[in-house]
Write a structure and sequence with these properties.
about 210 residues, five-stranded antiparallel sheet, single chain, Hemopexin
């Protein structure tokens, strides 16, 4: 699996793998496999590295190597005056592993290897202080050591219940202004997203018998 993207126009999910992609409605196959050329991409394109909505205008962009395209979702094809060179995305590395726009801050994040970049959508360059290590931010609350594991095993059921109650209280405090997901600690949201993506990929594999 190279990239996954939820289309805004109909909430269908596109899975990209190699020179093909599949379109799902929830966990049901809607179309596919389809060649990348169906989207207007060149026949010699081996794969798509990343797909994301851009926080600046909400349009979908596909990245591959040193070039990118903008997707016309209504036409379900890339726009005619693309591809363009990645140099316009100043500071963003080539051959990405992933990208997404986070609803919490409307910023666009790019990932490659163990590092990530936060992109300034107005200034059109990565923000100062980046790249940073992924596990220094996104998964810092989930690091485990032998001592922490032992401590966790000894934690009482009452403390567990208090943690759940605290999360529920934060959800209620923010549900009126920002919704449930804003109540989740910052480092938890990406893990939830990765978990959902993992489940979707598993379903995808079962449907296609791969």
């Amino acid at each position: 699996m190279d990239a996954v993207y939820e289309r805004r126009t109909d909430q269908r999910i596109l899975f990209f793998a190699g020179r093909q992609y599949w379109v799902f409605t929830a966990n049901r196959l809607h179309q596919g496999p389809l060649p990348l050329t169906t989207l207007g991409l060149p026949s010699n394109l081996a794969s798509v590295d990343a797909v994301t909505d851009w926080g600046h205008n909400g349009r979908a962009f596909l990245f591959s190597g040193s070039i990118y395209w903008r997707l016309d979702e209504a036409e379900e094809r890339v726009e005619l005056d693309y591809p363009r060179d990645m140099t316009v995305w100043r500071g963003v590395p080539l051959h990405l592993d992933g990208a997404f726009t986070w609803q919490f801050d409307s910023a666009t994040y790019f990932f490659k290897g163990r590092r990530y970049w936060r992109f300034d959508n107005a200034a059109m360059h990565t923000e100062a202080g980046y790249p940073k290590r992924i596990d220094d931010y996104w998964f810092r609350e989930f690091r485990c050591s032998s001592s922490s594991s032992s401590s966790r095993r000894g934690k009482s059921a009452q403390e567990d219940e208090e943690s759940v109650d605290n999360l529920e209280w934060r959800r209620r405090q923010t549900s009126g202004a920002g919704g449930y997901f804003y109540a989740v600690p910052l480092a938890v949201w990406p893990l939830l997203a990765l978990t959902v993506m993992s489940c979707a990929i598993s379903i995808f594999g079962c449907v296609l018998n791969i």
